Amino acid sequence: MGKIRGAATARAKELRLELSILGVFVGIYLLFLIGSPSTFTRFDIYYAFMSTIPFSAIMALAATFVIVSGEIDLSFPSIMGFSGWVFAKLSNVMIDRGMNPELVIVLATLACFATGIVGGTMNGTLVVKTRIPSLVATIGTMFFWRGLVNVCGQGYGETLVPINQTVLFKLFIGRISGLIPAQAIWMLVLTAIFWLLLKRHRFGSHVLIVGDNVESARMMGIRVNKVKMTVFMIMGFFASFSGILASLEVNYLWPSLGEGYLLRTLAAVFVGGTSVFGGMGTIFGTFIGSIIIGSLEGGIVAIGLTGFWTQLIYGLIIVVSLSIYSYFRRRE
Amino acid sequence: MAKQKLVSMVEIQKSFGKVEVLKGVNFDVNYNEIVGLVGDNGAGKSTLIKILTGVHSPDGGEIYFKGKRITIHSVDKSRELGIETVYQEQALSEQQTLWRNIFMGREITTNFGFLRIKDQRNETERILRDQMGFTSKAITTDSVVKNLSGGEKQGIAIGRALFFNADLIVLDEPTMGLSLAETKKALDFVRNIKQQGKSAIFISHNIYYVYPVADRFVILDRGHVAGKFLKKDISQDELVDKMVTLARTGKIS
């Protein structure tokens, strides 16, 4: 019997993990439905979820790669904030010079992406070259980028109204036939891409192997530093992308953009079943985890509890789901 | 040279700081031969091998591979030549499937870098069944390394080295920390190397494990070669006696 269990294939194991995540998800939505049928049988709440969840879900997808590689990034909300600020500030400077909004948003987007990639490269360099553990290095860069927003923005926000009639704006956060927010489509498409990258691509294979055992990876000729650098750059890039989406959604750049995303995003990854020790991760889990974490607040209020309950219930869900996965893992 | 050797290391010297670890070592491996490289801890076995696999560069001496003089400055270079190392810690990824492990760092992919998973699975299956002779139905290409026994892990690491057409496989203490039954399994995998016409260097400080599989023994002691023996000229007990005398007196009687 022991031998047969020992033979549990990776696929069977992963399927079981993903099914338990799905179980948690279905359980929570059943509670929502029973607690507030009038809210959860109507489209409105799903529309609201589709507009807000993608911002943190997209970053959670990128964070999954960082965590699978055995590292962590705490600076992505600040990178989101600063690159968002670059996006908005640059847009307004160009608009003031009378440039065409269509061109302005394209240039501002490119500058924003570049800022995000620079942020990721900085994290990667600190971890790979300076050899500071990522947990500590990204605490530093977290303060650094947030501080840069404060110094550059002096606490002021920036309007984004002048560019909200552009094609790119509609592509980013427009509404498809007035019903489906474009960011929800981005979230779906990116989930598929990240899944392919992790499970079906050489890069994902290297990320898994590096996170599993750095020494083994090195001995087999995998360029460990390049892999780690790349995951941090991907993280920075998608933090900047989320920064654009989240600010365009409200037509305004808040100088506090990004605050509040850190723990929720990471919680989504872990509730999704990705291992904190690296070498193992599930994109499907992160997708479902993001929806769970993103819909809790709305759901809790809808079933009649006050907002004071949200953190308590976040805590419960996280502790319970992680205990379930840990139980499965120990049985292997 | 009467017969061309696979590898000849001539008068190899290496110091770390003031410590002279190798004091002019001559070491050869013939085609289709398993050489047992034995000696106590600190004899210089690891250093000699790390020079051959490109981890360290020698301070003096020459290396010939298939008759040609070479310099090996990196692990990649030694691998290109056809020298693969199976490390004590095996260089496997514990949580990953066998098909990811066999191809780690050398994946079969399309032009865009997407994995040809089916090809990797099929090749892994072939390595498991035909090449390494795994029979247990419990082990499949989708098994996770963590669930294998120590001897089986060695088998995977050796199978991987053979698959990538290594002419010489360096085994660094492959039986370290294994139970008796697992040691037997690992030794069977080592015999496989010879059956496939390849050569191996088997590093160990335990004669009892090396003797059954090796064709020839090289005893290293404090930086030089203390003795070379063919298996047909020496029994296991005689070899052990020599090692004991060597450790006591610093000379082979």
Summary of the model, kept short:
Chain A is mainly α and 332 residues long.
Can you characterise this structure?
The complex is a heterodimer of chains A (332) and B (253). By secondary structure, chain A is an all-alpha fold. Chain A has helices at residues 2-6, 10-35, 37-40, 43-68, 76-96, 101-128, 134-153, 167-173, 182-200, 202-212, 214-219, 224-249, 262-271, 283-302, 310-331; strands at residues 158-159, 175-176, 180-181, 252-253. Chain A has one domain (8-331): ABC transporter involved in vitamin B12 uptake, BtuC (Orthogonal Bundle). Chain A is built from 15 helices and 4 strands. In chain A, strand 2 and strand 3 form a beta hairpin. Chain B is globular, with a radius of gyration of 19 Å. Chain B is 33% helix and 25% strand. In chain B, a hairpin with a 2-residue loop joins strand 9 and strand 10 (224-230). Chain B has a single domain (7-95, 144-249), classed as 3-Layer(aba) Sandwich (Rossmann fold). The interface between A and B is medium-sized, with 30 and 35 residues.
Order of helices and strands of chain B: EEEHEEHEHHHEHEHEEH
> What is the level-2 CATH architecture name of chain A?
Orthogonal Bundle
**What count of helical segments of chain A does DSSP give?**
15
Class derived from helix and strand content of chain B: alpha/beta
Uncertain stretches of 5 or more adjacent residues of chain B: none
Number of helices of chain B: 8
> Taking strands numbered 1, 2, ... along the chain, how are they ordered across the largest sheet of chain B?
6-7-8-3-9-10
* Major sheet characteristics of chain B: 6 strands, mixed
Rg of chain A (CA only): 20 Å
Apparent shape of chain B: globular
Oligomeric state of the chains in view: heterodimer
> CATH superfamily membership of chain B, which one?
P-loop containing nucleotide triphosphate hydrolases
Specify the helix fraction band of chain B.
25-40%
Side by side, the strands of the main sheet of chain A go 1-4
Got a strand count of chain B? 10
Enter the CATH topology name of chain A: ABC transporter involved in vitamin B12 uptake, BtuC
| Succession of helices and strands of chain A | HHHHHHHEHEEHHHHEHHH
Cα distance spanning the termini of chain B: 28 Å
Q: On the 0-100 scale, what is the average pLDDT of chain A? A: 92
How many strands, what sense, and barrel or not for the largest sheet of chain A? 2 strands, antiparallel
